[in-house]
Amino acid sequence: MTSQVTPYAIGTALQRLDGRSKVTGTAPYAFERVVDNATYLHPVQATIALGQITAIDTAEAEALDGVITILTHVNAPRLASTEDRELAVLQTDRVSFRGQLIGAVIADTPETARQAAGLVRISYAQWPHEAELSSERSDLYTPEAVNPSFPADTDEGDVDTAMSAAPVTLDTTYTTPLEYNNPMEPHTTVALWNDHELTLYDSTQGAHTVRTTVAPVIGLDPERIHVSAPHVGGGFGSKGIPHAHIVLAALAARTVEGRPVKFALTRQQMFSLAGHRTPTIQRVRLAADTDGRLSALAHDVVEWTSKVKEFAEQTAVPSRNVYAAPNRRTSHRLAALDVPVPSWMRAPGECPGMFGPEVAVDEMALKCGIDPVEFRARNEPDVDPETGKPFSSRHLVECLREGADRFGWHHRDPTPASRTERGWLVGTGVASSIYPTLRAVSTATIRVEAADHYRVDIGATDIGTGTWTALTQIAADALEVPVGHVDLRIGETAQPEASVAGGSTGNATWGTAIVEAARALQDTHGRPPEIGAEASGTTPNNPETERFAMFAHGAQFAEVRVHADTGEIRVPRMLGVFAAGRIINPRTAHSQFIGGMTMGLSMALHEVGVLDTRFGHVVNHDFAEYHIPTNADVGDIDATWIDEDDPYVNPMGAKGIGEIGIVGAAAAIANAAHHATGIRLRELPITPDALLR
Amino acid sequence: MKPFDYQRATDTDTAVATVSRNPNARYLGGGTNLVDHMKLGVSSPELLVDVSRLSSDTVETLPDGGVRVGAAVRNSDLAAEPIIRQRYPVLAHALLAGASGQLRNLATTGGNLLQRTRCVYFQDVTTPCNKREPGTGCSALDGYTRYHAVLGSSEHCVATHPSDMAVALTALDAVVHTQGPSGPRSIPVADLHRLPGDEPDRDTVLEHGELITAVDLPALPMAARSNYRKVRDRASYAFALVSVAAAVDIAGDTIRDVRIAFGGLAHKPWRATLAENALRGAPATEATFRTAADAELAEARPLSDNEFKIPMARNTLTSVLRDLTQQEGS
Ligand SMILES: Cc1cc2nc3c(=O)[nH]c(=O)nc-3n(C[C@H](O)[C@H](O)[C@H](O)COP(=O)(O)OP(=O)(O)OC[C@H]3O[C@@H](n4cnc5c(N)ncnc54)[C@H](O)[C@@H]3O)c2cc1C
Ligand code: SF4
């Protein structure tokens, strides 16, 4: 057991400490940083998907008043390392995907930079490219591991034999499309190079991650790179690792040494430069007895990566831990294509990977004539199916049952297409959620400035999640002082090194470091510690992970209406019930959950990047054409949680909640759409044409 | 984006003369379409002549019972106008189904009519497009065509016209008044937009420099019983997959007269005369509605991504007619 912090501030609905500065517009975001003598960068992007640059004509662009310099592979400073090929900008004449950064105009105003970028003439030798994903491709390969380091394939028991022996079986294929993170704040960087020191005001999920990733690429000692990101307007994974634009800004800053370079990606540019979620093709096989007990579960995934750099989404991984099926098989096959580099997007793996299987389970429940909530309960494992370890805590069935009660599930007539209200077919659906409880390593420092002033420093980030507030609550309880005595500082490399805001690890990792620092302070300096006392703490390894499997769980319920004439689909109601350990702040947690569920609604009904394989780029690359929900699409979305006591995960007893809200939401909606119409939808997004009758 | 000059027009004649003599001059209404195009490089005018404060921004009743809408009337204002809401609900609904509140506050009646297609290739200067650069080819033909035309297209262009307002105006037999280099003229809205043919770069029959000054709605008593339905990929703030503007005059169970236009199906708002003919004098039944829709859609030719538009248009028209004919007072 991990010694637990006694909750006092933890668990209270403290308002966001940064709320006022945000709504009054005074919280500084990267691009708004006031700097003297700024220059502006506008990139030049490749308009072919594969080939070689044969000529560059910058004469017309250079002739424009206000253009300072134009960088291309011909004149750009050499990088110290080109090992990470995504980050190796302007180092060769090779074009590896459409939209790749192949040049940069630096000018006195953003308008001039943009105009000049349009005047740079590039000639290419174009080679035939490959941008089409299909499970029929002959060049699919098995990656060495899937993100971050799971085995690509697992095989337990004998799925084939179980499939042929079982009275009820299912073998179907589901797809999820190319999706984009699209945080509200675009990726922006302000870079200043001065005397072998690089300062970056960056919109990132991890200041230290930027420093440690960029340092070897540009060949600077990490200590000479200073990154500042106190406020970030969302990331959803796309700002988790630095992308090529940061290196381009650094190269530009080095070229105009002494003058800051401001660079904000346009929304369109984000569709080729800021990562995306691979499309997935998921074959799911299930075998069960007539009581609905699964004897086999197989999940075989085909997805893409880019030839530039491999990113293997761990789509089939959740199928290793959710249900008790003695025979299990999972696999991942990749097509390496001439497309931009995929990356993390909210709940990589779990989010797409709980779509196929959770719709399959609904189909199976129907085949067995068993209520889908009950079907899931019957397949609840005693221990983690993958490792055989007990769960540190698991309340999936409790979430399902609590949700069913609150949602009014019990009045439901299971017959599809049995309810119509004023021309709309009505149905409800359910799905499970799961997300691993992980943690990374960070360090925090606490210094007693005065009897009522504890300064807490840690290079953590708040990407809109509530870190400023939640870490203050944790620090207050760890120090046993009121929240008003805590002076938290985050978002800078000047602070002790902290891990990225990703993998739902933030609070667990940073909070544990703060608790360690508070305990060190009390151990060495007593209670209360004297003014001027200082101590540091680092997140230790958690020995309990040897004994326990650790996950957060949830149940998602959705009501769907489909217009009988036009196929238009609406989701008036969603409810999520989660079990995620102790909730640090119910206000910010509720926002995280419903935000995740809203993004799940978006995935279910709206999001699809349309890649035109002839050109190799996403043609609907703006918010008029790449849809996310409007207010009118978002009905009554509510989330609640059950009290879950887990003394094994960390001293706060808290599991990460940033991602689980999106997991399973799309499946619940697809299942509800089936219940409403009798039409089984195995392909996302679900649009009116698929529901036309 | 290229640097450009800006002038605010003070009188119609000067504005028309200024734009007419400069092939690279454009009128500026609310700018919600033109300025986007300038940022994207789709359009690079040298001179913008702002007419958003020039032509009338009022809605007046005409002696013959019709209504005149000034070209500068903002979409939000027009939708809120009591006369429009009572006598031409189809127009108010169409306006409110378009864009977003913020955009409608800026968008003008003239600018809305002349907004250009949302074809993704038209808006992306890195891909060939006959409409943007004649002779370069049509990228949509073998590309992404979910929002493209099924009626009246050509091998040169399969784009749709995106305006909702224009669909309602077409159904209402509205007339556009213009002032051009060769004087004033009146054009029925139904004849304002062109089919693409082999000149897809020309959206409308207007000449360069021809200014829209007003739009007249005829006194059309049956328009009081009218509606606009827009089927789209999200509940708001999305262009139509298919839309229907319709007005009916019903006597007992018989359709005495009817006006129908489709949006989302063609390079122009599509006046459904074949469907109207099938409906006039026919009983108001589900079967009649479907037959009428099928008559209009018989010539439809879908592209790879938009076959659904044909049943969707049929169902939506049926749905609208059912609702209109079953309204109170029928
Ligand atoms: C994200 C987004 C979503 C949208 N969704 C919808 C939608 O769902 N439905 C819909 O119908 N529309 C939609 N729109 C389009 C919107 O309705 C148009 O942009 C708007 O109506 C254009 O009006 P404006 O006054 O701003 O035109 P401007 O952009 O100022 O001008 C458009 C064109 O008209 C010309 N022009 C302007 N006034 C005159 C005049 N008096 N005489 C002659 N020429 C003139 C200009 O030179 C220009 O070529 C959307 C737009 C955006 C950006
Ligand atoms: S459909 Fe028309 S607008 Fe679209 S690419 Fe073809 S020619 Fe251009």
What do these coordinates show?
With 693 residues, chain A is an alpha+beta fold. Chain A has three domains: 111 residues, Aldehyde oxidase/xanthine dehydrogenase, molybdopterin binding domain (Aldehyde Oxidoreductase, domain 4, 2-Layer Sandwich); 183 residues, Aldehyde Oxidoreductase, domain 3, CATH 3.90.1170.50; 332 residues, 2-Layer Sandwich (Aldehyde Oxidoreductase, domain 4), CATH 3.30.365.10. In chain A, 23% of the residues lie in helices and 25% in strands. Chain A contains 15 helices and 26 strands. In chain A, the strands form six sheets. A seven-stranded mixed beta sheet of chain A has the order 3-5-1-12-9-10-11. A five-stranded mixed beta sheet of chain A has the order 7-15-14-13-8, sandwiched between helices. Chain A has a five-stranded mixed beta sheet with strand order 16-17-22-23-26, sandwiched between helices. In chain A, helix 9 packs parallel to helix 15 and helix 12 runs parallel beside helix 13. Chain A starts with 18 loop residues before the first helix and ends in a 16-residue tail after the last helix. The model of chain A has no long low-confidence stretch (mean pLDDT 97). By secondary structure, chain B is α+β, with helices and mostly antiparallel strands. Chain B folds into two domains: 46 residues, Uridine Diphospho-n-acetylenolpyruvylglucosamine Reductase, domain 2; 277 residues, 2-Layer Sandwich (Uridine Diphospho-n-acetylenolpyruvylglucosamine Reductase, domain 3). Helix content of chain B is 29%, strand content 21%. In chain B, the strands form three sheets. Chain B has a five-stranded antiparallel beta sheet. In chain B, helix 5 runs antiparallel to helix 8. Classes of the chains: A alpha+beta (693), B alpha+beta (330). At the A-B interface, helix 3 of A face strand 9 and helix 12 of B. The structure holds flavin-adenine dinucleotide and iron/sulfur cluster. Flavin-adenine dinucleotide binds next to strand 2, helix 2, helix 6, helix 7 and strand 8 of chain B. Iron/sulfur cluster binds next to loops of chain B. Chain B: InterPro entries: CO_DH_flav_C (IPR005107), CO_DH_flav_C_dom_sf (IPR036683), Diverse_Substr_Oxidored (IPR051312), FAD-bd_PCMH (IPR016166), FAD-bd_PCMH-like_sf (IPR036318), FAD-bd_PCMH_sub1 (IPR016167), FAD-bd_PCMH_sub2 (IPR016169), Mopterin_DH_FAD-bd (IPR002346). Chain B: Its EC number is 1.17.1.4. Chain B: Pfam families: CO_deh_flav_C, FAD_binding_5. Chain B: It comes from Halosaccharopolyspora lacisalsi. Chain B: This is Xanthine dehydrogenase YagS FAD-binding subunit. Chain A: This is Xanthine dehydrogenase YagR molybdenum-binding subunit.
